[in-house]
């Protein structure tokens, strides 16, 4: 039996030991009660694996005795393999049972203590036999090496002491030999050392022997066994996984555009009063939940558990009423998945597949798919704690969707999932949680109410900390204790009410007044807020009402300077803003802030490090607490004595939109085309950025909230007509439209963008009004953003011209039809209106040139149907990328649209406007790559972009499997992309496995010539996976096997320029790549 066969056996058993070790890691993570036994068995098996890898590192010229010892059916290696097979079978059996259980219960450890002892004793015994055999083999190899080297010793013998090369020393004491040559070199002078090493390196035979000695010595070092601590290995694997490129890309994809919940958590911990919340951690309810206004306390407690234990993860989310990005179900689930995945030692296949399906991070998955991913990343973990703070701050009309998600996760009945939510007792939340509790069979749904004596003690701690800084002259220790006791008793468990009551007491000047105030403290937040509104002077009430609307419904953080400007805009008629009615804004003193009750708002500084802005330009305003906005929007206010301050979103949005447009019209009256020499735009009009960027969003919000029933009426209709309608065109409103669009173009460089994205764009204090900028026509703008009421208004305008114009062509929104096809809301209705008005669907302009191509690009099947019925051409002569709609559908993998276009008669071999003669040839100049995708048939495109589902449709429809572009057939593209499914599809459809193509090298290289390619040689090129270049993976080996079985010619010349240039044969590429395979692939990882 040869050495290679013995080595293969060693590798096979090492792979098996490694697989068992991985399974034991999973059991260690999932079975807490058996971790001691798992650790012992893991240590024994991992040491066996280390020993086997050391044996594999020996030269393949093994002695006959050692080969027999390894290969014999009754030998040590075979017995070890049988033992490991038995352990693996038991572990897999229980694991499969676990996976089949619908409730995904915890893993069950299949061995008793005596079974583990038996396995360990068996493995250790045979491990020691292998170690002994390994030592003897090492000794024989070293003696052989030394005998060979003795022949060549003369050239350097006079440099070293003679006793150092006495063979008797080696044969009697193998330990001495391990460091023999090192001793010789180290005992020599620098010159002697140089001569010895130079000799070893220059004499070929000696060099080979010297390298072999290094291998032997390396093996002897590696055989030393160590303690394998499974927990350390798990953490090491997790840490290594976190550094992997693909894992990093997936985590970044999940976190894209997400607010970081740890920032809010850190704020909560900074405000945390030491000692408060301990009742929650130590209480019976939470203890039950763990085996299952204090979320940060719970999170910190669980984080300590995570540090102490492996496989315990906490993922949390803070919902903020003033941050809409926290009020998004997709964001919450993505954040949870990212947190959990970051702490796993593996990346679940479900998550990898979702990443690939979403064009390697270019798109986001649906809620349904996110839940599948969440479930997959949780399975196998010991405990996962999902924490949501302030559920009540999620918008009420959208809260039902979030509650359904929480309910669905709870109904998975996965033992390792623990959900903790905090909320005020809102009716809809109470109903959902009560239903969950009633439907809960296991009794593991707990409700913890915070109105109990423990909360009163926490409030006292909070009050004591704040009152400690009050001046001692009036505030004696006795008075402080009296105030703290009184407020804590009346606060009814509400920290917010206690804080307001303490602030109210602080304003009183005498001890008598303070004590009198304690007896008059409001007993609820409603009473407190109501009194504050009743105290507003009559002359300030108008400004406060408008200010409260803006604070409540502004889409972007609101500056105090902007708000001071907004409250003085009038919408009834021009002039829309009178200079002498502006409120004073000097330094950090704002008249408006003296009008609004101080308990309602807080002022904060944003971008404090910005030295280019003055203080007043960095001051922002928001409600001090969610309870303020909730009170103003509630029926308690509308039916109470301060009902004039009641807030309704539709009224608020309409008022804000009207003021934004009126402000733009006001600014337009000051600016005259071509706007040269205007440098102080922001100083003169502080609200102009907000007005220009946000008016579209406010009207869009009104449209979407009304469920198609919104109608422009009153002042808003008049103002919108002035801004967009040519029927009422004047120099003022024309300039207002242009100025607003120039600001939008400056804020968002590339379309398409949503109205919300535009509204949240970062503003600049330096506005450059460039009159040369092309701006879209109002009809295209309204069509793109789904402002259906504006579209109807414009189409009813007798001056509105829907024929093709330069105005459409200059801006990348294109015609109204093109804009609607890429739009965000009511696109189908708007396209129907535009077609009914006579708009031509074949007018060429816009970023994607044709409406049908644009609709396909956005995966809008219904709009494609409407456009085709309206006369859109399937294969137009030219588009910006040169692509037809079918090519776009194939490139992006849109199966439904691809099927529909083929049904309508789209040319399955259409290659756009490219030079068809050159594109279809087998030889291709690599310089001719402009509009590359447009020069490819749909099947070539689908192959290149790994869209197997589309390829099935195209192949079933008779697509040419031998089409060529860029010296590539579809099979060559699939092979080069390491796409196994696509290769199988093409081979099954009759694709030529030996189709040879040639690339012409361009003359900028040192030489000029051609490179030949076949599907097999293409497999040896790296391919792009997201932003990574992938050279070797498991699919690569499968691809080569597929092609070889299909008859690929291994003697064909060509392929990548690695060693021998374009004349390398494929079989040589196979051998070279096998040498370069990562060790992990050799070991089957």
Helix and strand arrangement:
Blueprint: H1 3-30, H2 35-56, H3 64-71, H4 76-100, H5 113-150, H6 154-157, H7 167-172, H8 174-177, H9 180-186, H10 190-202, H11 204-222, H12 230-243, H13 245-255, H14 261-270, H15 278-282, H16 284-290, H17 295-308, E1 312-318, H18 329-342, H19 349-357, H20 367-378, E2 383-389, H21 399-411, E3 417-421, H22 427-439, H23 453-467, H24 477-490, H25 495-506, H26 511-518, H27 525-534, H28 538-553, E4 558-559, H29 560-566, E5 585-586, E6 589-590, H30 591-595, E7 601-605, H31 615-618, E8 619-623, H32 626-633, H33 635-638, H34 649-668, H35 681-684, H36 688-705, H37 714-724, H38 731-747, H39 755-759, H40 778-784, H41 788-795, H42 806-809, H43 816-821, H44 827-836, H45 851-857, H46 861-869, H47 885-892, H48 895-903, H49 916-919, E9 923-925, H50 938-944, H51 948-956, H52 970-976, H53 980-988, E10 997-1000, E11 1010-1013, H54 1015-1018, E12 1023-1025, E13 1028-1030, H55 1034-1045, H56 1066-1076, H57 1079-1082
Parallel strand pairs: 1-2, 2-3, 9-10
Antiparallel strand pairs: 4-8, 5-6, 7-8, 10-11, 12-13
Helix pairs in contact: 1-2, 1-3, 1-4, 2-5, 2-11, 4-5, 5-11, 10-11, 13-18, 18-20, 19-20, 21-22, 23-24, 23-25, 24-25, 24-26, 28-34, 34-36, 34-37, 34-38, 36-38, 40-41, 41-44, 44-46, 45-46, 45-47, 47-48, 47-50, 50-51, 50-52, 51-53, 52-53
């Amino acid at each position: 039996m040869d050495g290679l066969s013995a080595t293969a056996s060693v590798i096979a058993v090492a792979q098996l030991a490694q697989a068992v070790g991985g399974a034991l890691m999973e059991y260690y993570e999932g079975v807490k009660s058996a971790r001691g036994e798992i650790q012992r068995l893991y240590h024994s098996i991992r040491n066996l694996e280390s020993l086997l890898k050391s044996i594999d590192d020996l030269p393949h010229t093994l002695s006959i005795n050692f080969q027999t010892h390894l290969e014999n059916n009754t030998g040590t290696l075979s017995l070890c393999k049988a033992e490991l097979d038995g352990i693996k079978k038991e572990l897999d059996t229980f694991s499969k049972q676990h996976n089949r259980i619908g409730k995904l219960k915890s893993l069950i450890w299949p061995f008793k203590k005596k079974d583990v002892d038996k396995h360990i004793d068996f493995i250790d015994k045979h491990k020691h036999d292998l170690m002994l055999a390994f030592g003897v083999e090492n000794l024989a190899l070293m003696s052989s090496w030394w005998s060979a080297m003795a022949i060549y010793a003369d050239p350097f013998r006079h440099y070293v002491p003679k006793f150092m090369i006495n063979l008797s020393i080696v044969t009697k004491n193998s330990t001495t030999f391990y460091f023999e040559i090192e001793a010789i070199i180290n005992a020599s002078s620098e010159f002697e050392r140089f001569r010895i090493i130079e000799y070893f390196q220059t004499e070929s035979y000696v060099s080979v022997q010297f390298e072999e000695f290094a291998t032997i010595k390396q093996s002897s070092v590696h055989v030393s066994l160590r303690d394998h601590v499974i927990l350390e290995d798990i953490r090491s694997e997790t840490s290594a996984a976190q550094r992997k490129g693909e894992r990093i890309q997936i985590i970044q994809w999940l976190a894209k555009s997400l607010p970081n919940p740890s920032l809010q958590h850190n704020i909560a911990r900074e405000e945390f009063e030491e000692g408060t919340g301990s009742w929650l951690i130590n209480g019976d309810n939470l203890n039950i939940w763990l085996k299952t206004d204090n979320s940060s306390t719970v999170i910190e407690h669980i984080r300590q558990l995570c540090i102490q234990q492996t496989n315990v993860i906490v993922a949390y989310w803070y919902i903020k009423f003033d941050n809409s990005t926290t009020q998004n179900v997709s964001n919450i689930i993505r954040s949870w998945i990212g947190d959990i995945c970051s702490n796993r030692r593996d990346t679940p296949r479900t998550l990898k597949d979702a990443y690939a399906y979403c064009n390697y991070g270019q798109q986001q998955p649906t809620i349904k798919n996110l839940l599948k991913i969440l479930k997959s990343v949780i399975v196998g973990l010991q405990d996962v704690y999902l924490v949501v703070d302030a559920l009540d701050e999620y918008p009420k009309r959208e809260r039902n969707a979030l509650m359904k998600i929480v309910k669905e996760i709870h109904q998975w009945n996965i033992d390792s999932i623990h959900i903790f939510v905090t909320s005020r007792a809102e009716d809809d939340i109470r109903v959902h949680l009560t239903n969950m509790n009633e439907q809960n069979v296991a009794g593991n749904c707990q409700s913890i109410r915070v109105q109990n004596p423990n909360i009163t003690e926490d409030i006292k701690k909070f009050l004591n900390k704040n009152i400690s800084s009050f001046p001692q002259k009036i505030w004696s220790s006795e008075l402080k204790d009296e105030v703290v006791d009184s407020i804590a008793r009346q606060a009814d468990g509400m920290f917010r009410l206690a804080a307001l009551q303490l602030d109210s007491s602080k304003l009183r000047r005498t001890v008598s007044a303070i004590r009198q105030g304690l007896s008059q403290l409001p007993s609820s937040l409603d009473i407190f807020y109501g009194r504050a509104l009743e105290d507003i002077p009559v002359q300030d009430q108008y400004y406060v009402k408008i200010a409260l609307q803006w604070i409540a419904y502004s889409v972007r953080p609101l500056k105090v300077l902007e708000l001071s400007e907004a409250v003085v805009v009038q919408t009834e008629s021009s002039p829309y803003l009178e200079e002498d009615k502006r409120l004073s804004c000097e330094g950090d003193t704002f008249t408006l802030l003296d009008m609004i009750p101080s308990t309602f708002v807080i002022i904060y500084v944003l971008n404090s490090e910005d030295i280019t802005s003055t203080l007043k330009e960095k001051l922002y305003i928001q409600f001090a607490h969610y309870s303020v906005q909730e009170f103003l929007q509630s029926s308690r206010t509308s039916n109470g004595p301060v009902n004039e301050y009641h807030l309704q979103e539709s009224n608020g949005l309409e008022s804000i939109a009207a003021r934004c447009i009126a402000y733009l019209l006001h600014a337009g009256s000051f600016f005259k085309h071509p706007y040269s020499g205007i440098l102080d735009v922001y100083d003169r009009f502080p609200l102009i950025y907000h007005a220009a960027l946000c008016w579209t969003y406010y009207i869009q919000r009104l449209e979407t909230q009304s469920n198609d029933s919104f109608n422009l009426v009153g002042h808003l209709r008049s103002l919108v007509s002035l801004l967009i309608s040519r029927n009422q065109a004047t120099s003022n409103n024309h300039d207002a439209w242009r100025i607003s669009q120039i600001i939008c173009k400056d804020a968002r460089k590339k379309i398409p963008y949503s109205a919300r994205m535009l509204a949240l764009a970062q503003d600049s204090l330096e506005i450059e009004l460039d009159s040369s900028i092309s701006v879209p026509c109002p009809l295209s703008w309204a069509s793109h953003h789904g402002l259906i009421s504006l579209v109807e208004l414009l189409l009813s305008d007798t001056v509105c011209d829907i024929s093709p114009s330069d105005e459409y062509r200059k801006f990348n929104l294109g015609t109204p039809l093109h804009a609607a096809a890429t739009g965000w809301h009511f696109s189908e209705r708007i396209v129907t209106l535009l077609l009914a008005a006579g708009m031509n669907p074949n007018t060429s302009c816009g970023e994607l040139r044709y409406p049908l191509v644009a609709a396909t690009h956005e995966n809008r099947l219904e709009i494609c149907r409407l456009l085709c019925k309206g006369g859109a051409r399937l294969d137009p002569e030219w588009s910006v990328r040169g692509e037809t709609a079918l090519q776009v559908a194939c490139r992006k993998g849109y199966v439904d649209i691809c099927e529909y276009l083929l049904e309508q008669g789209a040319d399955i071999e259409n290659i756009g406007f490219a030079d068809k003669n050159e594109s279809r040839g087998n030889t291709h100049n690599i310089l001719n790559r402009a509009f590359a995708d447009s020069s490819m048939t749909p099947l070539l495109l689908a192959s290149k972009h790994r869209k197997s589902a589309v390829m099935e449709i195209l192949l079933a429809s008779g697509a040419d499997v031998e089409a060529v572009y860029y010296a590539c057939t579809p099979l060559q593209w699939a092979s080069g992309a390491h796409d196994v499914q696509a290769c199988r599809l093409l081979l099954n459809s009759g694709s030529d496995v030996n189709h040879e193509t040639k690339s012409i090298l361009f003359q900028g290289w040192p030489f000029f010539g051609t490179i030949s390619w076949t599907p097999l040689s293409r497999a040896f090129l790296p391919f792009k996976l997201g932003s990574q270049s992938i050279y070797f993976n498991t699919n690569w080996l499968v691809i080569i096997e597929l092609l070889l079985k299909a008859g690929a010619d291994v003697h064909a010349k060509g392929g990548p320029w690695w060693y021998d240039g374009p004349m390398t044969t494929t079989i040589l590429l196979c051998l070279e790549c096998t040498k370069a395979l990562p060790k992990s692939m050799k070991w089957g990882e």
